[in-house]
Amino acid sequence: MSEESNKLGPISAVGIVSSLTKIPDGFYVVTQTTDGSDADLWKDGLFKSKVTRYLCFSRKTEPEVVVDMKLIDIKDPLPESFTLVQETLDKKEAAMRKRRLCVKMSTREAAETAVCDIQITAKSKFQLVNYTCVGEINNMGIWYRMGDVPRSRSSQQTRSAPKTDALYSTISKIAISRPQYQQENSGIYTMSALDDVPFMVSEKFHVKPQQVKKKKKTILRIR
């Protein structure tokens, strides 16, 4: 991911509003296309309409983030794991009339990357670098950009905890497998270089029972 993408926080919500005077708190509204035209998603090219629809999004820190977006036809089935943006956030009216906007959510902890920016272009032939096109509506294209999901210190510590536990477990096993010796006076645990080394008596020092009897008899005669 580019540095510019990483500076933008992950988007946690995507919606549609019908009026620019009733924007929910914490939401950014895409009112213009990249070339400065009106980004109304409801307007008709031939007739003026009093109905307007503008795409908006929020970067508030929430448990979930947006990881994918799709623009489908009304008759198309909803893609698996996607949620339909069905109503406007301000008036609870139909969000779109020709197409439907869908978003895919994921928990913040599970997502490595997420949608971090959304732009609308006026011409379908115009492409944005490092952006992915969701689809077209009213001769306008909806594009999104991905970025890394920043990790909090608590989540990083949680992820590193299993490794630490494994290290402690290994150390414990090593400590248990090694014999420990304690001095009676000082209470200090010590281990000599000859510990765990088996000792055996040479065979030449072994005395057979018959030899022992002969030696006893010799001693008796002398007496």
TrEMBL record:
Enumerate the spans annotated as MABP domain: 8-148
Alphabetically list the UniProt keywords.
Answer: Endosome, Membrane, Protein transport, Transport
GO BP: protein transport; regulation of epidermal growth factor receptor signaling pathway; viral budding; virus maturation
Q: How does it sit in the membrane?
A: Peripheral membrane protein
Q: Which InterPro entries match?
A: MABP, MVB12A/B, MVB12B
Q: Which GO terms describe its cellular component?
A: ESCRT I complex; late endosome membrane
Q: Which PANTHER family match?
A: MULTIVESICULAR BODY SUBUNIT 12B
The UniProt family comment states:
Belongs to the MVB12 family.
Task: Output this protein's name.
Answer: Multivesicular body subunit 12Bb
